[in-house]
Amino acid sequence: MSSEKMKILEMIQEGKLTAAEGMELLKVMEEESSSEKEPGTQEFDLEKKEVLRSATGDRFLRVRVLGEKALKVNVNVPLSLIRSASKLLVYAMSFVPADKRAELEQKGLDLQALDIEELVRLVEETVDGKIVDVEVTDPMEGRIKVEVCVE
Amino acid sequence: MWSNYAKVLIIRVKLKGSWGLLFPVPVLVVDEFLETLTELVWVGEMTLKCLPLHKDHKTRKLMSWTKAISPSGLMESFQGVIKELGRYKGLNIVEVKTGEVWVKISLK
């Protein structure tokens, strides 16, 4: 079984895709591999590829917190979304008052020189797997497991 | 046209044993709204750039940020985030479950 098909099955298991969507993607993949491409269907094929790319190729930043009792946190953010949002952060930094910016510069932190997009790009290219894996014991919640990973 | 673009961002809040709330946000509508708003803001931005600085120091200070940063650029970036979000149909972005409350943000 190809890795793309495996990935689709994993995504169904994780609840990121519904069974119907998964079936649709698998069908598209089979059609692509078996049928010859007609010139008129090029645009449609591009759309199908886009769907497959979004379902199989994109990487996610996942944050999972699991408590022994009731606590459960599951956050899935596509890295491409973080890249888009990083532009917003650049704008947000423009709102930092000049005096505070000067204070930070004195401490060696130049907000203007901070390249968030590059930082996100580096995470996307170099980080793979778990970044944080912590287990703590809370008197109220019991054992809590925190996991941050890029997949 | 067959498309895998997410249509709705669903925000669900549920309290154990009592009421629940489901808030659907149509992604395409928000996208179109932001696009229109960006153009409107751009027009305002261009108009403000043509206006001379106000004599009153307080007003001048209040208006100065529109010249330092681009509000339309800010809106455009926000629209980019919404557009990007729309690509992930079926994604559960956030799911938080505590003893009493359950919050889920997903794309359908």
From TrEMBL, chain A:
Pfam family of the protein (one): SHOCT-like_DUF2089-C
Domain YvlB/LiaX N-terminal: 4-33
Name assigned to this protein: YvlB/LiaX N-terminal domain-containing protein
TrEMBL record, chain B:
Protein name, UniProt field: Uncharacterized protein
Lineage of source species: Bacteria, Bacillati, Bacillota, Clostridia, Eubacteriales
